[in-house]
Design a protein that fits this description.
Layout (H helix, E strand, L loop, with lengths): L1 H29 L9 E2 L2 E3 L2 E2 L4 E2 L2 E3 L3 E2 L3 H30 L7 H18 L4 H58 L5 H18 L2 E5 L5 E5 L3 E5 L2 E2 L3 E3 L16 E3 L13 H18 L7 H18 L13 E2 L8 H4 L1 E2 L18 H7 L16 H41 L3 H35 L5
Antiparallel strand pairs: 1-6, 2-5, 3-4, 7-8, 8-9, 9-10, 11-12, 13-14
Helix pairs in contact: 1-11, 2-4, 2-5, 2-6, 2-10, 3-4, 3-9, 4-5, 4-6, 7-10
Length: 474
């Protein structure tokens, strides 16, 4: 009877084991679409079999194992980080690219070409009032284009500042969620797989926002470092970061736009560490591309350099000439002399000039000044060039550089989208829930459960028979 009851205990244990396995399958199926969830596998531990010692064998439930692969997860996170960077740069560079039309038909470049063309037409008929008026009109159109470009760059800066703030808030929110989930694991959460799924989903979202490195404790708690250097989460402790745009310019130019800074929990600027993810892309455009165009405390910016060179040289050439009636020439352009980064924003046609004040003549000929202005865009004279480039070459270089940056970002976004899909496919293959496989396991475990159940019935029947064979005391 002892062996019989031992067999009964073994069968009941088997029933519990198969029920646990079925519960694991049910959890897998229920979470098949849950972000970050890794398929769980039920395990069975064989019990020793030795009848002489009363050991009847059988199985008990072992620890549930996760198919989660940190290698596959890291691969997805790396690609997500690169994708976030490319997407952010592509989005930010698109409106900037539109300001510098490489075809020369619109924007600042188109307006500059039109001004030089008006100078050429004026040179052919220096005393034509219509050609003189056209010069003033095209000069006004160029000034408006410079103003518009400067305003657009400033708006882009403001928008990026808002986006950087938003990205930082998302990073802090995700870090807080990870810290909360770490606390659940530390307290021995009964839903370990679900908590771990939350952590993995948060890490994947976080990697899209910034370059991170992650290590795991034996109980699954995640330690997250920003750029491998700055702590975001350690155990149950979150360390928040913040964006700052109030750092004072490092030179005497108080009109310059300060860089965007990312401050860690100690107040140190860590912007230089953030090279990938959405935040990395936003910081690159905000702190590198935009200052190179609009200027900052360290540089005047290409747009202002171009506006000042055109305005100064046109003014210098015109004031060196004379009008048809012999009067001295008048400056065509004016701008704010107080700040070198405000030239494009404040460029305007001199309100004191009239069409008849234009001076086409010089000592050589009656249209010498006008001809010099017509050729200004391609002039290689040292006084006419910018860093060794003609004005037209310099404008083309701006358009090419911005266009190339935008094109590279767009291409990188396309490539990284594909690489993310590939990495996620590998991740799914390793740790995703295969519903067909789970269906097969249900059949297998159900059959095992039925077999153990029948064994319990048989043992119960045998026990009853044995009991009935015992004589009743008279």
């Amino acid at each position: 009877m002892g062996t019989l009851f031992g067999a009964l205990d073994s069968s009941v244990s088997a029933l519990d084991s198969y029920q646990n396995a079925l519960n694991v399958v049910q959890e897998n199926v229920s979470n098949a679409s849950t972000p970050g969830y890794a398929s769980q596998t039920a395990t069975f531990i064989a019990q020793p079999f030795n009848l002489s010692q009363g050991l009847v064998g059988g199985v008990v439930s072992g620890p549930t194992q996760s198919t989660n692969s940190q290698y596959a997860d890291q691969a997805v996170q790396n690609q997500m980080s690169l994708l976030g960077n490319a997407t952010a740069q592509s989005t930010a560079l698109s409106p900037i690219q539109a300001l510098f039309d490489v075809t020369g038909q619109t924007g600042v470049i188109g307006a500059l070409n039109n001004l030089f063309q008006s100078f050429s037409e004026w040179a052919a008929t220096p005393e034509s009032s219509s050609d003189q008026q056209n010069v003033l009109s095209q000069a006004s159109a160029l000034a408006e284009q410079f103003n518009s470009a400067a305003s657009s760059l400033s708006q882009t800066t403001t928008q990026l500042d808002q986006q950087i703030n938003s990205t930082v808030e998302q990073i802090n929110t995700l870090a807080g969620q990870i810290a909360t989930d770490n606390a659940s694991l530390a307290q021995g959460s009964q839903n370990n797989a679900g908590v771990q799924a939350n952590i993995e989903a948060s890490l994947e979202s976080l990697s899209n926002l910034a370059n991170i490195s992650v290590t795991f404790a034996p109980d699954g708690e995640a330690t997250v470092l920003l750029a491998g250097q700055t702590a975001l989460v350690t155990g149950t402790q979150q360390y928040s970061i913040q964006a700052s745009f109030n750092n004072a310019p490092t030179s005497g130019n108080t009109d310059a736009v300060p860089d965007a800074q990312i401050l860690d929990s100690a107040g140190d600027n860590i912007a230089g560490q953030i090279t990938q993810g959405t935040l990395g892309g936003q910081l690159n455009v905000r702190n590198t591309v935009l200052p190179s165009l609009q200027g900052d405390s360290q540089q005047q910016g290409a747009l202002n350099i171009l506006a000042q060179q055109v305005a100064d040289r046109v003014n210098q050439i015109l004031t060196s000439g004379t009008t048809p009636d012999g009067a001295a020439g008048t400056e065509l352009f004016s701008y704010n002399n107080a700040s070198p980064v405000d030239v494009a924003a404040t460029l305007a046609v001199n309100p004191a000039i009239t069409a008849s004040d234009l001076a086409p003549a010089n000592a050589s000929s009656g249209n010498g000044t006008a001809l010099q202005l017509a050729d200004l865009g391609d002039s290689t004279a040292a006084t006419d060039t910018i860093s060794g480039q003609t004005i037209n070459q310099y404008t083309a270089a701006i358009a090419t550089q911005v266009g190339q940056q935008a094109s590279n970002a767009q291409s990188e976004q396309t490539v990284q989208t594909q690489l993310v899909s590939q990495a996620q496919a590998v991740q799914t293959q390793i740790s995703g829930v295969n519903l067909d496989a789970e269906a097969a396991l249900v059949i297998q475990y159900q059959q095992g459960y039925d077999a153990a159940s029948k064994m319990v019935s048989v043992i119960d029947s045998l026990a009853s028979t044995l009991i009935n064979m015992i004589p009743t005391a008279s």
